[in-house]
UniProtKB/TrEMBL annotation:
<dbReference type="Pfam" id="PF00326">
    <property type="entry name" value="Peptidase_S9"/>
</dbReference>
<dbReference type="GO" id="GO:0005829">
    <property type="term" value="C:cytosol"/>
</dbReference>
<dbReference type="InterPro" id="IPR029058">
    <property type="entry name" value="AB_hydrolase_fold"/>
</dbReference>
<dbReference type="GO" id="GO:0070012">
    <property type="term" value="F:oligopeptidase activity"/>
</dbReference>
<protein>
    <recommendedName>
        <fullName>prolyl oligopeptidase</fullName>
        <ecNumber>3.4.21.26</ecNumber>
    </recommendedName>
</protein>
<feature type="domain" description="Peptidase S9A N-terminal">
    <location>
        <begin position="15"/>
        <end position="423"/>
    </location>
</feature>
<dbReference type="GO" id="GO:0004252">
    <property type="term" value="F:serine-type endopeptidase activity"/>
</dbReference>
<comment type="similarity">
    <text>Belongs to the peptidase S9A family.</text>
</comment>
<feature type="domain" description="Peptidase S9 prolyl oligopeptidase catalytic">
    <location>
        <begin position="496"/>
        <end position="701"/>
    </location>
</feature>
<dbReference type="InterPro" id="IPR002470">
    <property type="entry name" value="Peptidase_S9A"/>
</dbReference>
<keyword id="KW-0378">Hydrolase</keyword>
<dbReference type="GO" id="GO:0006508">
    <property type="term" value="P:proteolysis"/>
</dbReference>
<dbReference type="InterPro" id="IPR023302">
    <property type="entry name" value="Pept_S9A_N"/>
</dbReference>
<dbReference type="InterPro" id="IPR002471">
    <property type="entry name" value="Pept_S9_AS"/>
</dbReference>
<feature type="region of interest" description="Disordered">
    <location>
        <begin position="513"/>
        <end position="532"/>
    </location>
</feature>
<dbReference type="InterPro" id="IPR001375">
    <property type="entry name" value="Peptidase_S9_cat"/>
</dbReference>
<dbReference type="InterPro" id="IPR051167">
    <property type="entry name" value="Prolyl_oligopep/macrocyclase"/>
</dbReference>
Length: 723
């Protein structure tokens, strides 16, 4: 994969003498010019990089085999968790061969129709369905659609019976799903200010919470919260099922934790709610909803790193909280919903995470005592926990793990049964879900292991190994290690065609639960942030050494991969310990940590990393910023940097500048490639997902010695029945 047709001289981009002086630090930035995506110089440089990538990966003889395998493992038919409104059930559905999921609605009679089809809106498949919410009456749906993955959605209101557009588009609506108010024919939503109202060069989103009544002009929608707040603030929205209470969570970029605001909508018109602050500890993070019993339920890390569930009277938001479910050792409380259990008793169904795997428990709603444990298909991820409005005895959730595509299960709290949820009908031309690729896990085994980091911290890690290696390593194999380690995100097991293809080809997959993530609660998260961010990277290096020492792999067989904050992780790993790794996939990364706040959503992340505008915090950033730690003449691993032109979250300038720096400094600059694609940071068409996975697998497999799959690699069992 070394030959590209370009000389080493042509790989080295011009360096400039750009220098910043920041609180006494002299910070060189020789590739500042690559921040300008619209310049002719950048365009010429990108043209060379695209040509090099096409020659090196796009035309590689093994790519077709990887694409065939990934495509065969990508055909699962998926249905999302249902949302019930007034007898109608709404759910997302992805049929075989579809680029994007559609939003469907099923009537009590069993008739199913498509309400939103992004491919009908945009036949290219590049428009993405974002957050959506049906009205309490089930007659309307408010949804977001984003073109080209830009995460700059427009809001639409559609007729649930016909799919006809009722209102929209309303632009600048990046944020959570709208929160409808029962009986008011309207909803609250988040909207940014218009561009001409934002100072030039200010990349903060300047969002506020607005009220909209159906049939009125969105230009006249009043802002009900956000004026006078930090322009980097992000919001969550929730309205009680009876339409009385509005709960808004506010998080500001430079601060830890959030603040909750509560309004009684019966005290005045919905366009002028009177907010009161919910009393909570400074720096804590809480999420609140009003239950069917009229009490506020708060999931909080206030006084509990692993979170606890409390309750309070919403009429007294500054009053005392009552603990309902206490923190549990070794587990993190993720969600909680109210259901009616045996004898119609009001109960709480709690979702926990233990070493990244989901657990469900049933508790008495008053005492919090444990009454039942919910049986699950395996050690996997539970998501989308939901009930009918007003409660009831049923709950629905999704399940997935490393070898099982997502499926939806129904739990009956009255008898403890867990059964597959079947759609009450089916979309036109689309069969009901029935298994899918990877559902038969006979080809792999998932192991849970632990290792010690450099400071002695005990870290857990998941290994997905071919079934013949279930008893332990019989010799080193090509190994792909993925990491994230940031923002309290839990690296949960989930099915991915890239991991399935890698393991089915004989490789091993590893995912360590490093600090900065939320696998062991908020303390674990904070232990890998700010001045302690290096611990995240140390945990990752320690995982690599453990895998090598235990005989699973060697440095010349070890590949690492990360996206977004995970791109920062693997970028830092590559420059800090290059001798440990053979190949790196670094996608949508943050890499220039001195200037990350100047683009994308950077201003919202100062609480996680620190700010270059602070004399102490800029030292934290400079201590590990990957772009600033590239050194000439070092033998760096092969690096594939992936940049997405429409990424409004992490600017692709990070990948461009790092690519130029590595190509200048590396002993073998031909091993550094840049992959560019005109998509966004997250959701993308299925074909683009397949293309990205194929390119990454081709690159990493060649560098680690993993043989490409044969023509029959996926085999009949790849599409076997669900477990």
């Amino acid at each position: 994969m070394g030959g590209t047709g370009a000389s080493e001289v042509s790989l080295r981009a011009p360096r400039e003498d750009t220098v910043d002086r920041i609180f006494g630090h002299v910070v060189a930035d020789p590739y500042r010019w690559l921040e300008d995506a619209g310049s002719a110089r950048t365009a010429d440089w990108l043209r060379l990089q695209r040509d090099r990538f096409a020659r090196s990966v796009g035309e590689h003889p093994t790519r077709a085999a990887w694409e065939r395998e990934v495509r065969a493992l990508s055909g699962a038919e998926l249905t999302g968790v249902p949302s019930w409104r007034a007898g109608r059930v709404f759910f997302e559905h992805t049929g075989p061969g579809r680029e994007q999921p559609v939003l469907c609605a099923a009537d009590p009679s069993g008739g199913v129709r498509t309400v939103v089809d992004p491919e009908a809106h945009d036949p290219s498949g590049r428009t993405v369905l974002g957050p959506w919410a049906p009205s309490p009456e089930g007659d309307l749906v408010a949804c977001q659609l984003s073109a080209d993955g830009r995460e700059e959605p427009s809001l639409y209101v559609l007729d649930a019976a016909t799919g006809r557009r009722v209102e929209g588009p309303v632009d600048r609506t990046r944020g959570p799903a709208p929160a409808w108010v029962a009986g008011q024919d309207g909803f609250y939503y988040v909207r940014g200010r218009p561009a001409d109202a934002i100072p030039r060069g200010d990349v903060r989103l300047h969002r506020r919470v607005h009220w909209h009544r159906i049939g009125t002009d969105p230009r006249d929608d009043p802002a009900v919260l956000g004026d006078g707040m930090d322009p980097s603030s992000a919001y969550t929205l929730s309205v009680s099922d009876d339409g009385r209470w509005l709960v808004v969570g506010v998080r500001t970029g430079g601060r830890r934790g959030n603040r909750l605001w509560l309004a009684d909508l019966t005290a005045g018109p919905p366009g002028k709610p009177r907010f009161r602050a919910v009393d909570s500890a400074e720096g804590s993070h809480s999420a609140a909803e009003i239950g069917p019993d009229g009490m506020a339920r708060v999931l909080t890390d206030d006084g509990a790193s692993g979170r606890r569930l409390c309750s309070f009277d919403p009429a007294e938001p500054d009053g005392p909280w009552t603990e309902v479910i206490a923190e549990r050792p070794g587990a993190v409380l993720q969600e909680a919903v109210q259901v009616h259990g045996p004898d119609a008793r009001l109960s709480v169904l709690a979702l926990w995470s233990r070493e990244a795997c989901g657990e469900l428990t049933l508790h008495d709603a008053v005492s919090g005592s444990l009454t039942a444990r919910v049986p699950l298909p395996g050690a996997g991820t539970i998501g989308g926990l939901t009930t009918r409005p007003g409660g009831g005895g049923e709950a629905w959730f999704s399940y997935t793990d490393y070898t099982c595509p997502q499926r939806v299960l129904r739990y009956d709290a009255r008898d403890g049964g867990v059964t597959p949820w079947r759609v009450p009908g089916r979309p036109h031309g689309v069969p009901a879900p029935a298994g899918g690729p990877g559902a038969d896990a006979g080809w792999a085994t998932t192991l849970r292991v632990h290792y010690r980091s450099s400071d002695g911290a005990r870290v857990s890690m998941a290994l997905v190994v071919p079934r013949e290696a279930a008893g332990g390593p019989s010799g080193p194999r090509p190994l792909l290690m993925r990491g994230y380690g940031g923002f309290g995100v839990v690296a949960r097991p989930h099915y991915g065609q890239d991991v399935a293809a890698w393991v089915r080809a004989g490789g091993v997959f590893a995912e360590p639960h490093i600090r900065g993530g939320g696998e062991q609660g908020e303390q674990w998260h904070r232990a890998g942030t700010g001045k302690d961010k290096q611990r995240t990277f140390d945990d990752f290096h320690a995982a690599a050494r453990w895998l090598i020492d235990e005989g699973w792999t060697t440095p010349r067989h070890l590949a690492i991969a990360g996206t977004s904050n995970g791109g920062l992780l693997v970028g830092a790993a590559a420059v800090q310990q290059p001798q440990l790794y053979a190949a790196v996939s670094c996608a949508a990364p943050l890499l220039d940590m001195v200037r990350y706040e100047r683009s994308g959503l950077g201003p919202a992340w100062a609480h996680e990393y620190g700010s270059a505008s602070d004399p102490e915090q800029v030292e934290w950033l400079l201590s590990y910023s990957p772009y600033h730690h590239v050194r000439e003449g070092r033998d760096y691993p092969a690096v594939l940097l992936s940049a997405f032109d429409n990424d409004t979250r992490v600017d692709p300038l990070h990948a461009r500048k790092m690519c130029a720096a590595l190509q200048h400094a590396a002993a073998d600059p031909s091993g550094v490639l840049l992959r560019c694609e005109d998509l966004g940071h997250g959701a993308r068409p299925l074909s683009a997902t397949i293309g990205f996975a194929t390119d990454v697998l081709t690159f990493l497999a060649v560098r680690t010695g993993l043989a490409a799959p044969g023509p029959d690699a996926a085999g009949p069992d790849a599409a076997g029945p669900a477990r």
